[in-house]
Amino acid sequence: MKTIGFIGLGVMGKPMAANLIRKGYSVIVYNRTLDKACDLVEMGAETAGSPEETAKLSDVVFTMVSNDAALEEVIYGAQGVIHGIRTGSAVIDSSTVSPALSQRIASDLAEHFVDFLDAPVTGSKPAAIDGTLLFMVGGKEEVLAEQMELFETLGSKVIHMGPSGSGSYAKLAHNTIVGINNAAFAEGMMLATRSGLEPEKFLQVVQNGSAGSKAADLKGQKIINRDFSTQFSAKLMLKDLKLAAELTNALRMPSPLLDSVKNLFQMTENKGYGDDDLCAVVRNYEDWTQTEIASRAVREARAGGMEQAAAAEPAAGPVPERRKTDRLELSIKLQLSVYQWEQEGGFQGQIIEGTLADLSSSGLQILSSAPLAQDMFIVIHFPQEAGLPPVTAKIIRIVPGDGIFRYGCMLTGLPPHTRLKLEDYIEQQRQ
């Protein structure tokens, strides 16, 4: 059997490599973080010290990395695949990258008489584990035929899309739809929840009606059960949407839905949820409305936990409030991510400088020379030493001055533990 090199052992790559091992292939793995290979070594894999060494020892090299820069380093770096690859072997890239990079790699490897297929996947982590991925493949059909046994080990369907780069084009178009569907599902779920409907009942309506989608089937239970464990992260979805936006610009194609959703996922990352599952895009709506989409069971369990905690609390005298009602004068430098609706329905975003001037029980007052509008949402980034995640606020009052605006901001959707951490940080600044 062929010896398979596998580079990139993340959420998708590791279970793919494991399936090759189970099928009986000799597998050599490489990952920048070596401990990710431990389980695979126990299954029978060998490790290599670099992509170059992996290529030297393999008949076929799979790559599954996070972005263009990572793939360029793996292929072209000082110890890259291109320096060790053997004539007559093949490289299969299952990353989601720009079509231009896929085409360049194919051309450069061809000069070494090495075949290349761009073969991104869909199905996320569960399909990678089960070996039921869908591959969309760009490259020569005869090369795909030669490697079909490997694809059939890892997936349930393989579609040849066309010449080199076609797989990457297909993946960006596909993930544009995935991002839009997940944002649409989140928005509809919030509309139902704010209207007083039970989220789990409305989810049944969606799944059995014409609004049904993979987003509802795969992410509905995760959202209402407050499970944001990663199957495909929000930051990777953002990366893919940015690549898709670059492509639509190059093609001179209007893409208002893509632009809006890209900015929604940018907000998700700015709020500190980038490493969560892509369904965490719903947290934007929860912050804006201060409403959580949770099942009745989750709400009842929380209520029961609070009652138990209250019963266990020993009797004591009155507890002083952590925050005084009077304002605390401050001067803390901040960065603000500012988002604004554009006429065509997209978001316009920018980073501006600001200063936290004071804090009260009702919100924050921020000084900035940038003119902003009432009812705008901003994401506040505190200094790194604060150890605070980005915080969302709404501008509710504006007092213009001599080149400086005072913005009264109401915090939105702030979790209790973050509020306490913010108060502790503010108290430290006063000392």
From TrEMBL:
Residue span, PilZ domain: 321-428
Record InterPro entries: 3-OH-isobutyrate_DH-rel_CS, 6-PGluconate_DH-like_C_sf, 6PGD_dom2, 6PGDH_NADP-bd, HIBADH-like_NADP-bd, NAD(P)-bd_dom_sf, PilZ_domain
Pfam families, alphabetized: NAD_binding_11, NAD_binding_2, PilZ
Residue stretches making up the 3-hydroxyisobutyrate dehydrogenase-like NAD-binding domain: 165-284
PROSITE patterns hit by this protein: 3_HYDROXYISOBUT_DH (PS00895)
6-phosphogluconate dehydrogenase NADP-binding domain sequence ranges: 3-162
PANTHER family named in the record: 3-HYDROXYISOBUTYRATE DEHYDROGENASE-LIKE 1, MITOCHONDRIAL-RELATED (PTHR43060:SF15)
Family, similarity comment: Belongs to the HIBADH-related family.
Protein name: NAD(P)-binding domain-containing protein
Lineage, highest ranks first: Bacteria, Bacillati, Bacillota, Bacilli, Bacillales
